Amino acid sequence: MKYAVKIEVSLKPGHSNPEGETTARLLVELGFSVEAVEVSKVYKVVLEASSMVEAEQKAQEMSSRLLVNPTKDDYTISVAERK
User: Fold this and answer.
1) Counting CB atoms within 10 angstroms of each CB, which of 48, 63, 78, 83 has the fewest?
2) Residue 35 lies in domain
3) Residue 6 belongs to domain with CATH number
């Protein structure tokens, strides 16, 4: 069965987010009332698995082995059956 997995990776509080800071500054310069911008990455993966539990386990492994640096990143995983 195919599953659509979404892995969102963002910086933990206290870590510098230069891309977000630059974006916030530029938005203010353009006249927008912006206090802060946080930039995150979203990975959308379609994978084969025998169950939703297995798909989530695979997503956890992908995250820990490649996509997430546990020292500086937080992440969330969502899994849905792909029709």
Assistant:
1) 83
2) 2-81
3) 3.30.1280.10
